[in-house]
Design goal:
By secondary structure, the protein is mainly beta. The protein has an 11-stranded parallel sheet, with no helix packed on it. The protein starts with 11 loop residues before the first strand and ends in a 14-residue tail after the last strand.
């Protein structure tokens, strides 16, 4: 049943119901059960893994890993690698999520980079860079943050314009803004302090 409705050109669909709804979409490469299932007109996408890009209608996305980018509809130019990475992304574009469940809840995030298992898990805002396991895990409203290291900025919910570098640096920051913490455990007890 792969490519059951396909009339587009230069597509490769491998796996049960891969590219099932594709009509005029072209230059797509889908491998895995129901990968790109609802994609009708999206072009130049690469989906590898079960249910990757299941709801996709957009262009130039690469999703690798089971359920990666599953709910993406209009988001374009995204790279999601890892099972369930970018799972809830719907309209976000120009993102790079690498790692299991990285950017999992990023429904409308743009221009963000999350690298590491569960990095940016609850993030829904844009212009953040989280590198390290569970870095920026609870970030929901914070934007323009850079967190590098294991659990950096873990509890950050609405803090903006912060730079946390080092193991657990700024891990308890919730809504503090404009802070720079460098070094293992630096600023770990800061909750709402700003301009440090």
């Amino acid at each position: 049943d792969s490519g059951a409705s396909n009339v587009g050109e230069y597509n490769s669909f491998i796996g049960n119901k891969a590219g099932y709804s594709n009509t005029t979409g072209y230059e797509n490469f889908f491998i895995g059960y129901r990968s790109g299932y609802l994609n009708a007109t999206g072009n130049r996408n690469i989906f590898i893994g079960s249910d990757t890009g299941y709801s996709n209608q957009s262009d130039n996305n690469t999703f690798i890993g089971n359920y990666g980018g599953r709910n993406n509809v209009t988001g374009a130019n995204n790279l999601f690698i890892g099972s369930e990475s970018g799972y809830a992304s719907i309209i976000g574009s120009d993102n790079v999520f690498l790692g299991h469940r990285s950017g999992y809840s990023a429904t409308q995030s743009n221009n963000s980079v999350f690298i590491g298992s569960n990095a940016g898990y609850y993030n829904v805002t844009s212009n953040n860079t989280f590198i390290g396991h569970a870095s920026g895990y609870y970030n929901t409203d914070g934007f323009e943050n850079t967190f590098i290291g294991y659990l950096t900025g873990y509890l950050n919910g609405s803090g903006n314009c912060n730079v946390f570098i080092g193991h657990k640096s700024g891990c308890r920051n919730v809504d503090g803004n404009d802070n720079t913490f460098i070094g293992s455990g630096s600023g770990r007890n800061n909750v709402s302090g700003y301009s440090n």
